[in-house]
Amino acid sequence: NKEVVATRMARIYYLQGEFHKAKEILLGEFSDLFEVIDKGLLNVRDFKTLHITPVRTYIEILREEGNESQALKYADYLCAHFKIHKYYDSGLPTINHKKFQRMECFYLQNNIEAFLDEVHEIYFENRNRFGLFGSLKSSKFHAFESKPEFRELFNEIKRETHMARSEVIEYLKNQGDWKESWNTELTEIKVTN
Q: pLDDT 10s per residue in the chain (193 long)?
């Protein structure tokens, strides 16, 4: 699918700091989409889920270019889409990518304080940890990654995650359910992380 390839290529260029090239790819494939969103012609109910990532990357590029008002317009649109589809208001268990939508909105709206509060609440208060560590590590929140307050909370989560993993390993060893070959596999994982 051409759209999927364009989305992924633009994301790669964005993460490499080649914002102009990323924007060129997005505009080449999604200019009609951006235009109808910009002009208010696409109802959030009709927005396709597969377009979240290209719009999201476009928001990040606009911010890098200093176009905060335009970025916020698209961010508010995406967050309205999330809300209308009850991604985060239902209270029901959802698949992993949906349970972090409030956090996603705070990121898209460039609200680091609310973003960090939400991350803290998800991880430490709600203890809803599945997927959060990986999501924070995945460059999904690239624009916040260099901020000291993000690094501080991420390092706290990382310590907590590694401590929990160590406790599970110790428990498995004490129960005789640990295979020594797993030590090598864990060492290889640590080297690549």
A: 999 999 999 999 999 999 999 999 999 999 999 999 999 999 998 999 889 999 999 999 999 999 999 999 999 999 999 888 765 444 433 434 456 888 999 999 999 999 999 999 988 888 877 778 888 988 999 999 999 999 999 999 999 988 988 888 889 888 988 888 887 777 666 555 5
Task: Provide the whole-model pTM.
Answer: 0.83
- The string of DSSP letters for the chain reads -HHHHHHHHHHHHHHTT-HHHHHHHHHHHHHHHHHHHHTT-S-GGG--GGGHHHHHHHHHHHHHTT-HHHHHHHHHHHHHHHHHTTTTTS-S---GGGTTHHHHHHHHTT-HHHHHHHHHIIIIIS---TTHHHHHHTTTTHHHHTSHHHHHHHHHHHHHHHHHHHHHHHHHHHHT---THHHHHHHHHHHH-
**Alpha carbon separation from 24 to 33, 67, 80, 114, 137 (Å, rounded):** 14, 16, 26, 31, 27
Which CA distances in Å does 4 have to 13, 63, 88, 105, 179?
A: 14, 23, 25, 22, 40
